[in-house]
Amino acid sequence: MMTNTEIIKSNWIRVNEEIKKAADLAGVKVPKLVVVTKKQPIEVISAVIQSGAVILGENYPEEAEEKIKFFADEHVEWHMIGNIQSRKAEIIAKNFSFVHSLDRYKVAHKIDQKVVSDGKLPVLLELNVSGEMSKSGIPAWEERHWADLLRVIDEIKQLSRIEVRGLMCMPPFDPDPENSRKHFVKLRKLMEFINRQLGMNLDELSMGTSFDYHIAIQEGATFVRIGTAITGERK
Ligand SMILES: *Cc1c(COP(=O)(O)O)cnc(C)c1O
After folding, report:
1. Per-residue pLDDT tens for 199-212?
2. Would the CB of 228 count as within 6 Å of ligand 1?
3. pTM (two decimals)
4. Distance 215 CA to ligand 1 centre (A)
């Protein structure tokens, strides 16, 4: 019988091999792996870190803050990937080194005011490319949204303590990962569009989870966010 730690380690190795294989086949750079540890206990996160993970992704600021304190001596980066409420801006600015899920000027402004480090906090803008109403993200699924989208990004990019690096999306779950492809393609094309229209150099695309990361890599993901394929199911 394998222990839970051994299972996580072997998942970690397998997922990394699959990421590399998918990137090689697609002729793209190997994306950075964010291991998503939301709702996972300390023992699971220890096993993930021991396996070699260097970027951990969390969704809930208070839960994350406790874990970040606990693992303060480890050389890992913590990325915020979950839906952000503006009253959590301070916890986020003080604990995370990267934010994937910024989707409103109000939140961006509040985080900007709370950044304590000398450098700028790198952020990605979460876009809703699928049109599913329950999902967070700046509306971007139809051309009629794009003028507003450009205006919001232009405002966020004026903030002095955060630095917009790219885009993120979280399409609705679909048992057939092929159905995520159109959303990933749209995110990539929107990044090119934003770069042209606003003279920016965005180059990070955070897309793909345990179910569809192979497809996301084919479509240019520079970050994949993978939880259960490595950690096992969440409690
Ligand atoms: C939970 C979560 C993931 C990881 O999903 P898995 O199915 O566990 O791989 C990725 N991105 C976001 C935004 C999430 O909330």
Report:
1. 999 999 999 999 99
2. yes
3. 0.97
4. 15
